[in-house]
Amino acid sequence: MLQGRGAGRDEPALELRRLARNVGLVERYQAVAFAYASVPFFWFLLRDRGLDVADFAALQSIYYGTTLVCELPTGLLADKIGRRPVLALAAVAQACGFAAMAGARGFAAFAAVQVLLGVGQAMLSGTTAAMLYDSLRALGKEGEYLHRESRAIVARLMGTSLAFLAGGALAEAVGVAATPVAAMAFSLVALPVALAMREPPREGTAASHPPARLLVESVRDVARVPDLRWVAATFAALFVALRTAFCFYSPGLERAGVTHYVTIGAVYAALNVVAALATRATRRVTEEMGERGSLVALLGVLAASFALLAMTAAPALAVLCFFVQQVPFGLHFPIVAAFVNPRVPGDRRATTLSILSLLGRASFAAAFPALGAVADRHGLAASLGVAAAAFAAVAVALGAVGRNAPPRAEAS
To answer: What's the helix, strand, coil split of the chain in %, to 5?
Structure first.
């Protein structure tokens, strides 16, 4: 922790003030860096430019494949060269991706877009959380992390909500081609916010280690430390459940007769507002249930929502389930990050969070095709039922293991 000593020593005090600014800057950065105004309308843009559903699915695979490949390298980069330059590079990569999307024609051009956006997203994964925690630790305020991370996630969700509303209005008034231009503008605003941050000090010595050693140490920690092994499995299960739910939103809205761009943007925005309201309750939830109990309960809520979706074909009830699923979405990451950060050294923090994200994405890549195969063979309801049963079983198993966990050992 940095401390100013002596009335005549201004430099430590100035450094502390600069680090304190990071807390608010992370919130502002999240509000604009994740303002993906084009997301609800990406399919419509592809359709208008002559691509079909198979192309859409392939492009989604390219995006997630890119994030999967880049998760660990970008986490290592953030631990080696610092959080600030990686957050700046993320803004640049995303701005370039959205600019390219606005003028893209044909599958190859859109594939390049997805690679750029995937790289940018991978750079964001874990880096914002590491920047915030390291800054608070340097200030001696790491106990405030859960509250501050929750505030940052609320800022992110509200920024995304406003972007979705703006995207809907632009799509209706100008056309869907305008939505990536808006997303590019938000990403460009994120760049000076990142550059205004101060690189916080990090405990540990891994910055001087070769990347391979840093990666091996981080993987070893996740594999061997019971707390990290448990939270990695829990995060992977939550990632699969939340991402699977997200894949049903557009078909669900279409089935409910929601077709106007303004309405689609408004629904996506409303989903994020519900998630933001849930995020504001993070501290209260963890105080009542504990971190482990809260994460297991979130997975149980998702399992129940999938079961309800499997049992009903009513569009209104399906949309209600989508809103219920926003509660776990809003709560899960602040709790996971608050669980992980004190348990790993600062010089491996971003890498460890990237490993968790990598495990989540890999689990989704393995599980979702299996659920799709069940849907093709037996129908969507059967696929949802299988998902509900699987998530419920995993929640029970994780709850049992979590109850027998030893007391936490904090990283030095």
So the answer is: 85, 0, 15
Closest CA to 37 of 122, 94, 105, 120: 94
- Closest alpha carbon to 49 in 111, 100, 116, 110: 110
Q: What's the pLDDT tens digit per position in 136-182?
A: 988 888 888 888 988 999 999 999 999 999 999 999 899 999 999 99
Query: In this prediction, what percent of the chain has a pLDDT beyond 70?
Result: 91
Cα–Cα distance, 397 to 155 (Å, whole number) = 34
Sign of the CA dihedral with 186 first, then 113, 349, and 203 last: negative
**By C-alpha distance, which of 32, 120, 34 is closest to 74?**
120
Contact 150, 283 (CB under 8 A): yes
In the chain, what are the domains? 20-196+209-403 (1.20.1250.20)
CB 222 within 8 A of CB 355: yes
